[in-house]
């Protein structure tokens, strides 16, 4: 409803979103997941590559030696827990509209509306499909920016957790499912993953990219996701900075 504070904010941010359209047309980017495999991945090789960080990646910035180019967070629990850490990251930060009451509306913040229709959204001004995993939202942002190739790292697609998708639980011990033991450390609320649902939207993203001559490849070290073509991280990003095509 026009005139409503939420709608006024989202309409304002449509203008910000428009500025990112095709900003990286024809380029390669990397979406950095948060799995334990990041600890076995030499992310310093990505220092000069456009990257998307997700959720609590700020916990790994010191080890990486750089901050991601862009950041995406959609879960309100993560935003509420990590507002200061997320906002400490430089560069544009994309949040779901659930973040409007939780995150400051600074110049580097972009709020994106959620769409209802269950399809990959090529037009970020209209919104993104927020379903199952933040990684899927990052893929929609990457599409909007014009990237022709998206490389996944740290998307392990494997959890030591009960199979009860989306149930809110409280962690009782160090986190074995992410790159840092305090990612969802003791006493932290988090929602259990929906791996089957994630695979569904990943297939949607793969089909959309490939129909336009673009591609998503998975260079996660030891990852268990079987939706995308596999690639070797060290081959794609050799030491010294030269990248393979």
From TrEMBL:
Gene3D superfamilies: Alpha-2,3-sialyltransferase. This is DUF115 domain-containing protein. It comes from hydrocarbon metagenome.
